[in-house]
Amino acid sequence: MEVTKRGLKQLISSAIQADVSAKPFECIPGPKSLPILGGLWKYLPLIGNYDLNRLHITGYKMQEEYGSLVKQNMGGEVIVNVFDPSDIEQVYKSEGKFPARRSHLAVAHYRLSRPHLYNTGGLLPTNGSEWWRLRSTFQKPLARIQDVRLFLPSSDKIIGDFLTTFIGEGVVIYDFLPHISRLNLELTWSALFGERLGSFHSTQSNCDSIVAGLIEATEIANSCILRTDMTETIWSKMKTPIYKKLEKSLSFIECVVDKQLNKITTVTDESAPKKTEETISLVDKYLKFEESDLKDVRGMVSDLILGGIDTTSYTSCFILYHISRNKFVQERLKAEALKLLPNANSPVSPSVLNEAIYSRAILKETFRLNPIATGISRNLDQDTTLSGYLVPKGTLIITHNLVACRLEKNFKDPLTFLPERWIRGSKDYCNVSPYLVLPFSHGIRTCIARRLAEQNLLSFILKVGRNYSLEWKGSQLDVVTPIICKPDNHVAIAFKSI
Ligand code: HEM
């Protein structure tokens, strides 16, 4: 039998993991499990002190009460919560050849009930070899930095247009998130289809416009994921209101995507200039792949729209929150941005991104304090020892990177926003476990659009820092966790032109 390098690594790692001296799984501390309710009583008003809508605070309380490894029985499903970076490392090492998570179950159900439109449940919910068939195909144009850099000229133009349209010479904006969502929809659409959607245009400001519809549909769909993941036994028998809400949003996204795919696959404009490496879109590339067909592309495009807007929009809000409240950070950013972008409309080029050390540190520090996910979920692919307990293969694990990143034992002054932590040579530089700040996750199931998202966010930081001074006008911002971490208050900022 041929043993591949990866297979051999896994064999060795399983041998190390099968620790005979480990304490039994049953002894992992956690909330008492009641008949029928299991540990769900902790989330009930009056008797419980946990909150699904504030998973980060729930996680914090959990590790305070029970320690670094916490077992919960959530309505029959056992979950192990992991807070320690060395355990998080072990979880990734035990994720196997096809890292599996249990999420987006209702999205999969919706798509699998439409076999004339989809081959699979899509990249987000699918596990196993089918996931890898999709992933290895569709990640091709997104994995290498030189391919992602091809999107830079158009994203630079879009961010420039956004700043001119919504901020101009300077203004106070009391609720910036809806504008930022338009920016990130436009960036996602342009990467997907190589054309503009017109998200900043006045004709798209009505609530019945395609732009408003897409933003609303993705936000509603994302907000239904956690609740539908927890109620599968009910909606799989009878459509519940929350399932119907998700269905309506997915169907709206599907209609828009289908119309666009139809246009691309049926209309050939002979007079249009021939597409070059720089102008060819993600979908143009996807449609040429032999490993996939139109049904796969439909699912992938929908997943990229679902994953592309809220993640980057919420992150942009937190970046602005931290910059606008920290004058010193803002001054250092301004100095870097003015050096790299001498004029107000100087383009962000690949070399500018390579030299944007401080802007990159701002992004990393934002992700430390405000990652978009509180952690990730995995089904263990092998028996694994975590915090001295033997956790069996197949167990559902939730990592809590957000909580770990806000603990004194992992970071000095953990609640202080300090980009210098990430600058080598700075007195505040900290050499910490690489398994703490993992906003895009890690390993082969890491976010498929990581490089694209980072590129867009860095360009945004540089262009804002170059052209405006910012002052925070809102109240303190934390997060609510419908699934990803959303600002829990209005993002209110005064912008002044530099
Ligand atoms: C701030 C920006 C973003 C963050 C922090 C982020 C984070 C993540 C995380 C944590 C995962 C789960 C990975 C895992 O389970 O190991 C993920 C998966 C994914 N993300 Fe992102 N993401 C971001 C932006 C985007 C964008 C812009 C898109 C699309 C254009 C996108 C599309 C996806 C998709 C399709 C997956 C599923 C990948 C798979 O299961 O193979 N994300 N992302």
UniProtKB/TrEMBL annotation:
Q: Where are the transmembrane segments?
A: none
Q: Which cofactor is recorded for it?
A: heme
Residues forming coiled coils: none
Extract the PROSITE patterns matched here.
Answer: CYTOCHROME_P450 (PS00086)
Q: Which top-level group of life is the source organism from?
A: Eukaryota
Q: Could you say which residues form the signal peptide?
A: none
Q: Which CDD domains does the record associate with it?
A: CYP24A1-like
Keywords, alphabetical: Heme, Iron, Metal-binding, Monooxygenase, Oxidoreductase
- Give the similarity note: Belongs to the cytochrome P450 family.
Under which name does UniProt file this protein? Cytochrome P450 302a1, mitochondrial
> Which species expresses this protein natively?
Rhodnius prolixus
Q: What is the lineage of its organism?
A: Eukaryota, Metazoa, Ecdysozoa, Arthropoda, Hexapoda
